[in-house]
Amino acid sequence: NLSKRLMTVANYIPKDTKVLADIGSDHAYLPCYVCLKHEHVNAIAGEVNGGPFESAQQQVNQIGLKGQIDVRLGDGLDILKEGEADTIVIAGMGGSLITSILDNGRSKLSNVKRLILQPNIDAQSVRSFAKNYNFKIVEEEILDEEGYIYEIVVLEPDNQSTQYTPKELYLGPILLLKKPDAFYRKWENVLHKKEKIIEQMKQSTNVSSEKLEEFVQQVKWIKEEIN
Ligand code: SAM
Known about the structure:
This protein is an alpha/beta fold. The chain folds into two domains: 4-162, Rossmann fold, CATH 3.40.50; 183-226. The protein has helices at 4-11, 29-37, 50-62, 95-104, 123-132, 166-171, 173-178, 181-203, 209-226; strands at residues 19-23, 42-47, 69-73, 87-93, 114-119, 135-145, 148-157. A seven-stranded mixed beta sheet has the order 3-2-1-4-5-7-6, sandwiched between helices. The longest helix is centred in the C-terminal third of the chain and has 23 residues, at 181-203. The structure holds S-adenosylmethionine (SAM). It holds the Pfam family TrmK. InterPro entries: SAM-dependent_MTases_sf, TrmK. This is tRNA (Adenine(22)-N(1))-methyltransferase.
């Protein structure tokens, strides 16, 4: 049984995926779920840490999916051969870690048709990756599970160099069109926090005016969208 968060991620895996890579797979719940459901999908579960790597191996052995899921120990996309995966999932990490994994492994993205990314924080950096590396944001989702709010950003190679405004990178171009309930909940929260921080910054003497301006700009964007 997958969490609502991972189930939502799984729903974005294309039906015609041949090789799915799940990077930072931990227990390998996601590839196990997908491979049980779709016999034609092969998966690679990547883990950089020994403990999670062993849990992934155990889980895969236990449900008899050894032939379908290859569990590999290594950093980010290093564990992939060039062009090996056509769908890559990176979920449950900070946005900047996801971005650095993709950036360090960009030579492995040549055959990728879809990247499904679920940053726990800082989705903006994942969207900036799209902008800088010729990917297009094709789907976005925001969801609420046990008091936490998660965002999912789905990217596909883009040959049209789609442009995004800084505001779209911050709030999500597709979320801005859909504005689900969780979008309001997230940004109301962030708004309160940022306004407090701005007050504190104004009282402090050693704050960079750039940082202050950035926060003021972000608060303006949020207010434009949730009020
Ligand atoms: N993807 C699963 C999920 O969404 O439920 C597990 C998320 S877990 C919080 C993050 C996992 O990423 C950890 O098991 C950690 O060991 C792994 N990880 C962190 N950095 C990594 C890297 N550079 N390469 C591969 N795995 C990494």
